[in-house]
Amino acid sequence: MKPLFGKIVSNKMQKSVLVEVARIVKDPKYGKYYKKTKKFMAHDEEDTCNIGDFVRLSATRPLSKRKRWNVEEITRKAEVKQGDESWVEQSKTHCGK
């Protein structure tokens, strides 16, 4: 299966992340292009992904009821503004990591 590329929107679970994958679709009647998004649960073994990171997903065997994808690599880290690292620590402590 083809790998998917998306953005992490939630990392509040242990070893799991929620990834939003966007794609461009053309309307068949009017020919207008618009963006469709879909969210996938993915397995993050090292628990290194943060909100805003862009990742590549690969298909794997079913790991749970909703997890069918594995985080293969982080293609681009989220840009954290200088002095604004509090949300990263807050997201990690909020979920018990």
Helix content: under 10%
Tell how many strands the DSSP assignment holds: 5
Order of strands across the main sheet: 1-2-3-5-4
Report the structural category: mainly beta
Shape: globular
- The CATH class, by name, is Mainly Beta
How many domains? The number is: 1
CATH superfamily: Nucleic acid-binding proteins
Main beta sheet strand tally, sense and closure? 5 strands, mixed, barrel
Mean pLDDT: 90
How much of the residues is beta strand, in percent?
over 45%
- CATH architecture assignment: Beta Barrel
Q: Which regions contain 5 or more consecutive residues with pLDDT less than 50? A: none
Protein name: Small ribosomal subunit protein uS17c
Family: Belongs to the universal ribosomal protein uS17 family.
GO molecular function: rRNA binding; structural constituent of ribosome
GO biological process, one term: translation
